[in-house]
Amino acid sequence: MAPNLSPNPSNSLDAFAAEKLAGLEAAALRRRLAVTARGPEAAAERGGRRLVSFSCNDYLGLAHDPRVIAAASDALRRYGAGAGASRLVTGNSPPLAALEERLARHKGKEAALVFGSGYLANLGIAPALVGQGDLILIDDLGHSCLFAGARMSGALTLRFAHNDVAQLRALLAEQRGAARRALILTERVFSMDGDRAPLPEILALAGAYDAWTLVDDAHGLGVVEPGQRAPLEMGTLSKTLGSYGGYLCASRAVIDLLTSRARSLVYTTGLPPASAAAALKALEIVEAEPEHAARPLMLARRFTARLGLPEATSPIVPVLVGEAESALALSAALEARGFLVVAIRPPTVAPGTARLRVAFSAAHDAAQVDALAEALAELAPDSLRAA
Ligand SMILES: Cc1ncc(COP(=O)(O)O)c(C=O)c1O
């Protein structure tokens, strides 16, 4: 049979993908997955080599804590590998119910709701609270999933410059009157910069303009002093708590509304019981061992002091490089010396601000931190001078 030479949509699909990829490659923006076996003590095995990882958000090393692993294994044996359906269908597993109670208590809130991930939480929260005719004001450096949730809500979404309270005030003064409801979205600790939102000022403004505030605490929980709480405190189980999943802590009324209206909760399978049990055990450890929880920030400060960088205010320290290609080269040079410090490039960060994002963990020891500082001082003196 003669081959069919008419245009084949799957070929045009591949041609499209190949062309897009070539563009990404040329701009040093193509991303690749690397098989990496993460072990205890911040170890990462990649390509047959053992590296010390400074790229992981497991800030307290709890993903490998034997107590966390035991809690997850026990739940796995008792309740199985998966939740079976949406939580509204098969119900809450006992570890999930216990975790929600504990999260609410930890945050000083009436109730909590666990989602499949932090990303899913942020996709569900804003659209359940605001829509057309409403206003969202979002920090320019907010995480991608905060923007995605805002977009899905249909509310008028305006950005304010990063941590710029004066601009936030001006936008509220200009826009609040025309909107039925207003929601402010920000982060306690910014994921790629490691700095912190001026929450007392933001919450005061929110009070003055009857706006609601959501704080994304993905990178703050357990490892920085929380300060003032917002009415909507969301976060993830995947970083300090070493597991997987997301959550919102709020008033009982808000949580009950979200239970009925957050589409990313209602129409998706519940979190596996073992993930909930792991996060619950990790949260107990965070509360019981404050000295352990203080270590990542202490190590981050040791690092910034050694390199003459501005003092760290969280376990995340950015080393700004500039161009994506240079950030990739610096990351590769560090990898050759045994450090995993992944380059962060646009669109995760603004063009011209590619960087190494150095994340510190209680699992690091001081000698590892000093060795990384020494390597950076040798490999990237210009980046450090510019800081
Ligand atoms: C600030 C922030 N919010 C939300 C998320 C999403 O959380 P998750 O990884 O649980 O989806 C992340 C990280 O991935 C984050 O950095």
Automatic annotation (TrEMBL):
Domain Aminotransferase class I/classII large span(s) in chain numbering: 51-376
InterPro entries per record: Aminotransferase_I/II_large, AON_synthase_class-II, PyrdxlP-dep_Trfase, PyrdxlP-dep_Trfase_major, PyrdxlP-dep_Trfase_small
GO biological process, one term: biotin biosynthetic process
Superkingdom of origin: Bacteria
Reported cofactor(s): pyridoxal 5'-phosphate
The keyword RNA-binding is annotated on this UniProt entry: no
Protein name: 8-amino-7-oxononanoate synthase
Native organism: Methylorubrum thiocyanatum
Lineage: Bacteria, Pseudomonadati, Pseudomonadota, Alphaproteobacteria, Hyphomicrobiales
